[in-house]
Amino acid sequence: MPAAGPFPLGMAEAVDRLFVHCRQLVTLTDGPARGARRGEAMALLGVIDDGAVAVRAGRIVAVGPTDRITREYYAADEIDLSGFVVLPGFVDCHTHPVFAKTREHEFHQRCAGADYMAIAAAGGGILSSMRAVREASLEQLAARTEEHLWGFLAHGTTSIEAKSGYGLSLADEQKSLTALQQAQANVPLTVKRTFLGAHEFPPEYRQDREAYVRLLVEEMIPRLAPLADSCDVFAEPGVFDTSQSRRVLEAARAAGLRLRMHADEIQPMGGAELAVQLGAASADHLGRISDAGIQALASSDTVGVLLPGTILFLAKPHYAPARRMIDAGCAVAIATDFNPGSCYTQSMTLIMTIACSQMKMRAAEVITAATINPAFSLQLDDEVGTLHPGKRADLCVLDMPSWEAVGYSFGGNPVVMTVKHGEPVVTNVCERAPRG
Ligand code: NIG
Ligand code: FE
C-alpha cells in the first residue's frame, strides 16, 4: 500500500517511481511510437518543459508536465531532475565491443601518414585484434567485453547492437559470441548480437579466400546462428567483394538471421543497393554511397546507419551525405562504430556533434537518429526509442541548457544519469546541487 501522500487518498494512482522537474523532457511522442522516421518527421520531438515520467515495473505509465503527473500519480520514490534535459536512452546500433586489446599505436601511425587499409594489408588492423582475441580465454574476453558494455551505459546508451568479428574462425567467433552473451547477462543494457565472421580474411585463408567464404557459408553461419540475431559483412574492395558478400548474407538469411552490412565505407561498391536488394535491416557507413544507392534506400525499410566518428578518427574526406539522404526520404540513424581500430569512442553525444558539424544534420534529426530510428533497425521500436507509455523506462539525463544543446555541447560527457528499466544504473555526478 502506498503511504498517504500530500493529496487525498484515492485521487492519485500508485506507481513505483516518478522522475520529476526535468528542465525539458524530450519524449518523441509527437510522432508515432513505432517505425522509422523520415524527412520532416525526424523533427517530431514532443518537448515538455518541467516534465515528469511515471514508471511502474520498469515501464513508462505516463509522461507530462510535472504538476499534472504529480497530481495524477503517486510514488514513494521521486527523483528530482531539476536543471537537466532528459531524452530516451540512446540506441547505438553499430558497435564492435568484443575485443581484448586496444590499438592506439595504429592511430598514431595514421596521424603520421599511414593509411588504414595499408595497415590492415600489412597484417595490422583487424588482424591484430584477431590475434589478441584468439590469445584471450573466454573468461578474459567476457571480462573485457563486460567493461565495454558498462562504458555504453556511462554515456547514456541503453540499447546496443554488438558484433563479433575479431575471432575469424569457428572456435574464436563462437568464443566471441559466448563472451558477449555472458557479459550482457551481467550488465543492465539491451544487447542484440551480430555475427561478423566476414570482417576480414584470417591469415590461414589469405591465399585461398574462396575457402574462407565456404567455411562461413557452410559451417560458421549454420553453427553460430543460434548465438546471434543478425549477420554482418565488411563489403569493401580488397575485403569481401560483392559476390562474396551476397553469398554470406544469403546463407545468413537462410539460417534465420537478419542482415546488416558495412557498405560503401571507403570505396564505392554498390553496397547500399545490395543491402536493399537483400532486404537488410541496415546499410552502414555509406561515406561513398551513390545516387542510385540513396534512391534505393529511400524506397526501402533498410536503415542507413551513418558512422561519422569513424571518418573523423580515420581522417578520411568522405562523410556520408546525410542531408541528401534525409531529403530523399531515407531512414537515417547514427551510431558510434565503437571498436579498437577505426573509432574508439562510446559517446553518442560526440557522434551527434560530428553529425551536426560535418554532415549538417539538425538537432532534432540527430536525436531521432540516435533513438527511434536505430531502435527500428534492431526491431526494438516496440520497446524503446521514444517515451510513449508502455515502453521501457530507458532514459538519458543530460547536463545541458536545452535540448538544442545536443551537438553544441562536446568534449565532455554530459550524461549525469542513465536509467534502465526505470532504475538509475549510472550516476556520473555526485553531490551536485540541482540547478533551477
Ligand atoms: O566498422 N570496417 C570494418 N570494421 C570496423 C573497423 C574494425 C577495426 O578496425 O578493428 C569499422 O570501421
Ligand atoms: Fe563497424
Query: Judging by the overall fold, what is the CATH architecture of the largest domain?
Result: Alpha-Beta Barrel
Q: Fill in the CATH topology of the largest domain.
A: TIM Barrel
Helical proportion, percent range: 25-40%
**Biggest beta sheet attributes:** 8 strands, mixed
Binned strand content: 15-25%
Write a brief caption for the model.
The protein is α/β, with parallel strands linked by helices and about 425 residues long.
Keywords, please?
8-stranded parallel sheet; binds fe (iii) ion; alpha/beta; Urease, subunit C, domain 1; 8-stranded mixed sheet; globular; 18 strands; binds N-(iminomethyl)-L-glutamic acid; about 425 residues; 2 domains; TIM Barrel; disordered N terminus
Task: Please specify the SSE layout and strand pairing.
Elements: E1 13-14, E2 17-26, E3 47-56, E4 59-65, H1 66-72, E5 73-74, E6 77-80, E7 85-88, E8 90-95, H2 104-111, H3 116-121, H4 126-135, H5 138-154, E9 157-163, H6 170-185, E10 190-198, H7 209-224, E11 230-233, H8 242-254, E12 258-263, H9 271-277, E13 282-285, H10 291-298, E14 303-306, H11 308-314, H12 322-328, E15 332-334, H13 348-359, H14 363-369, H15 372-377, E16 395-398, E17 415-420, E18 423-427
Parallel strand pairs: 1-5, 2-6, 2-7, 8-9, 9-10, 10-11, 11-12, 12-13, 13-14, 14-15
Antiparallel strand pairs: 2-3, 3-4, 7-16, 16-17, 17-18
Helix pairs in contact: 5-6, 6-7, 7-8, 9-10
Bound molecules: N-(iminomethyl)-L-glutamic acid and fe (iii) ion.
The site of N-(iminomethyl)-L-glutamic acid has 13 residues, from helix 4.
